[in-house]
């Protein structure tokens, strides 16, 4: 694993623990707290202890500012009674099933919960993979890819398998863009277009849910930024966030997240051999950059998926600390 990836993982886990500390300090005097002591909490604590004291303080300030803002958006965290609030860190393997929420805040007495996806200095969407054993249509949309798609990609991934068995590095492959990246992206593009032409409503309904990693649930994304700011972005796709209690309305109010209803195009980014850009109506745009994510050749390729455009009225809040 590259050093940059290792550092990013450590910082991300450390920030998760800073959020747990912030939640405990902000809420322990308001209502009973049950912070679940699971393996995920221990891992986050270990990573938090790996970073220096200055970074810990910055993370705590950032987390405190972010959690305070979320409390202003979610009065059910502090209002209506003295029942227990359960807080837990989710294990990493739940993300494989489509749920990228790191922190769950739950009031079991009223069957209510919110989730927070915690990010340290990045706002990427899901990192999906492509291989000749992975059916992206089934995983993303519940619709199998065609036999023709696998016939197109199988020779390429079989070649990657041969490279891997020979211990070849990515940098040693000549013309890798023409031989590997572009053909795979073309096959993906053609299959995506085919699936959309046959199942427009299903593709539209499930695409954003899948790429945002919500697994059919609304959630908050909280990003620790470099400029002494914490960014809070609610993805209120189903309208379950920002609910009032019987006695209090949210101090910060936002609406339901507008979804796309039509795909306009999926095309190669100008002057790029590794990136497709998906344009939809209602202001949505997403980029798919394919890369190896490793020094040695592997038998799969990874998508770095970024949100390029979003509805102009999509709510977010930057909180200074």
Q: How would you describe this protein?
A:
- This protein is α+β, with helices and mostly antiparallel strands and 321 residues long.
- It has two domains: 3-123 and 214-257 and 315-320, no CATH class; 129-208 and 259-309, no CATH class.
- It is built from seven helices and twelve strands.
How much of the sequence lies in strands comes to: 15-25%
Q: Which series of helices and strands comes N to C?
A: HEHHEEEEHHHHEEEEEEE
The overall number of domains is 2
Oligomer state of the chains in this structure:
single chain
What is this structure's SSE topology?
Layout: H1 3-27, E1 33-35, H2 39-50, H3 53-73, E2 85-89, E3 103-107, E4 112-120, E5 129-130, H4 136-141, H5 147-165, H6 176-198, H7 200-212, E6 219-224, E7 229-235, E8 263-268, E9 275-280, E10 285-291, E11 301-309, E12 317-320
Parallel strand pairs: 1-2, 4-6
Antiparallel strand pairs: 2-3, 3-4, 5-11, 6-7, 7-12, 8-9, 9-10, 10-11
Helix pairs in contact: 1-2, 1-3, 5-6, 6-7
């Amino acid at each position: 694993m590259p050093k940059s990836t290792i550092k990013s993982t450590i910082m991300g886990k450390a920030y998760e623990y800073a959020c747990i500390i912030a939640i405990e300090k902000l809420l322990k005097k308001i209502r009973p707290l049950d912070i679940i002591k699971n393996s995920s909490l221990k891992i986050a604590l270990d990573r938090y202890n790996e970073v220096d004291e200055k970074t810990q303080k910055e993370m705590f300030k950032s987390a405190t500012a972010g959690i305070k803002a979320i409390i202003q958006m979610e009065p059910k965290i502090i209002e209506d009674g003295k029942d227990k609030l359960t807080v837990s860190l989710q294990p990493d393997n739940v993300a494989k099933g489509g749920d990228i929420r790191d922190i769950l805040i739950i009031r079991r007495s009223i069957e209510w919960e919110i989730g927070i996806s915690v990010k340290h200095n990045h706002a990427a969407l899901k990192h999906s993979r492509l291989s000749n054993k992975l059916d992206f249509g089934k995983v993303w949309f519940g619709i199998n890819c065609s036999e023709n798609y696998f016939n197109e990609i199988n020779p390429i991934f079989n070649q990657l398998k041969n490279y891997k068995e020979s211990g070849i590095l990515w940098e040693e492959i000549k013309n890798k863009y023409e031989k590997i990246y572009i053909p795979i992206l073309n096959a993906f593009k053609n299959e995506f277009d085919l699936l959309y032409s046959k199942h427009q409503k299903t593709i539209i309904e499930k695409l954003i849910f899948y790429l945002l990693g919500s697994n059919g649930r609304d959630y908050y994304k909280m990003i620790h930024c470099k400029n002494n700011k914490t960014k809070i972005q609610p993805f209120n796709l189903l309208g379950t966030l920002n609910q009032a209690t019987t006695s209090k309305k949210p101090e910060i109010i936002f609406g339901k997240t507008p979804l796309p209803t039509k795909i306009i195009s999926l095309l190669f980014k100008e002057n790029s051999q590794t990136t497709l850009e998906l344009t939809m109506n209602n202001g949505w745009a997403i980029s798919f950059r394919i890369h190896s994510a490793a020094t040695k050749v592997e038998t799969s390729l990874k998508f770095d998926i970024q949100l390029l455009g979003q509805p102009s009225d999509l709510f977010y809040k930057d909180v200074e600390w």
